[in-house]
Amino acid sequence: IGTKFPAMGTTIFTVMSALAAETNAVNLGQGFPDFNCDPTLLADVSAAMAAGHNQYPPMPGVLSLRQAMAAKIEALYGRRYDANSEITVTAGATQAIITAVLAIVRPGDEVIVLEPCYDSYVPNIELAGGVVVRVPLTPGTFRPDFAKIGAAITPKTRAIIVNTPHNPSATVWTAAEMRTLEELLAPTDVLVISDEVYEHMVFDGAAHESVARYPGLAARSFIVSSFGKTYHVTGWKVGTVAAPAVLTAEFRKVHQFNVFTVNTPMQHALARYMDDAAPYLELPAFYQRKRDLFAAGLAKTRFKLLPSGGTYFQCVDITAVSELREAEFCQWLTREIGVAAIPLSAFYGSGFDQRVVRFCFAKQDETLNRALERLAKL
Ligand code: PMP
Ligand code: GLN
């Protein structure tokens, strides 16, 4: 049929989840919880549906949810976004990111991504006709290398996509790093798409450094959030974008014609739930305990653990366990050992192989223990 994107394959998350299902493996690959959300949130959905919230909401989203997000961002990061003109509800972070990219990237514009990066960024830029400029995070530590980022900025640079806490490496940017980014971009017109979907999963007492905390960044940024991550409902596909009014206006030009709007009852339920409580405040301790449980088990294997400062991912070096390449190792681990993981090479355009794979620990303790029993032989 004359394919438009001959090089575009199927996302690694679909591939590995399908293999895990087929082989009955414990799926620590694709990132999603295997436990249910708070029953109160489910009751809020039923209540919203019973109350008749079943037709189109306003194009930018249900106002009470935008107000709840504005209040949350202000309480946590000290910056006020106007619910009417600066916050838009999206079909998850995925649609938020592609919509932001389509809204700002013109054919030939350069967009910087920091590799390894989430697998939708590069195709999104390509779909917009932009030019992808890949800047590696520092090998080994996965920290931003500002000399390299600075060197990649040209008069054609339209935007940079940043992501902290970072998928897949589980690193968390420091305040000093955010300030450096702010200073680096100060003399430029470069826009920022800040993927903050793991904002509430930061461990060991560290703080999430939202771009909202940095005026010079906030003024040029789209902040992407996802309720799926925060409330254990990845299948609901609801998120938000917070951005200054001029950027939001551009964002909505595209949003209105790619989804128009997002399902109504979930938005009402999330708004009500956020009004009642701030359950995300418990998330760091909740996931840190799971990280520690999983890490303690892995410590008995020959995997070498990389630090996991945030997200719900744990990366391990496989060098002492296998001579296989990452992708083949993940296939082998799923089929032969019965545990699915994600190769880090999937987050690089070049398929760069550093013998590191990613496990997701957003699982019930019994699931983690079952996986650990299987991994114990390695
Ligand atoms: N960005 C990152 C870094 C992610 O890890 C994910 C989810 N895996 C997304 C965006 C997409 O989030 P959503 O499910 O809300 O579309
Ligand atoms: N963000 C999830 C991950 O990194 C997966 C989301 C998806 O399957 N697209 O595992």
TrEMBL record:
<dbReference type="InterPro" id="IPR004839">
    <property type="entry name" value="Aminotransferase_I/II_large"/>
</dbReference>
<dbReference type="GO" id="GO:0016212">
    <property type="term" value="F:kynurenine-oxoglutarate transaminase activity"/>
</dbReference>
<dbReference type="GO" id="GO:0030170">
    <property type="term" value="F:pyridoxal phosphate binding"/>
</dbReference>
<dbReference type="InterPro" id="IPR015422">
    <property type="entry name" value="PyrdxlP-dep_Trfase_small"/>
</dbReference>
<keyword id="KW-0663">Pyridoxal phosphate</keyword>
<dbReference type="InterPro" id="IPR051326">
    <property type="entry name" value="Kynurenine-oxoglutarate_AT"/>
</dbReference>
<comment type="similarity">
    <text>Belongs to the class-I pyridoxal-phosphate-dependent aminotransferase family.</text>
</comment>
<dbReference type="Pfam" id="PF00155">
    <property type="entry name" value="Aminotran_1_2"/>
</dbReference>
<feature type="domain" description="Aminotransferase class I/classII large">
    <location>
        <begin position="24"/>
        <end position="375"/>
    </location>
</feature>
<keyword id="KW-0032">Aminotransferase</keyword>
<dbReference type="GO" id="GO:0005737">
    <property type="term" value="C:cytoplasm"/>
</dbReference>
<protein>
    <submittedName>
        <fullName>Pyridoxal phosphate-dependent aminotransferase</fullName>
    </submittedName>
</protein>
<dbReference type="InterPro" id="IPR015424">
    <property type="entry name" value="PyrdxlP-dep_Trfase"/>
</dbReference>
<keyword id="KW-0808">Transferase</keyword>
<dbReference type="InterPro" id="IPR015421">
    <property type="entry name" value="PyrdxlP-dep_Trfase_major"/>
</dbReference>
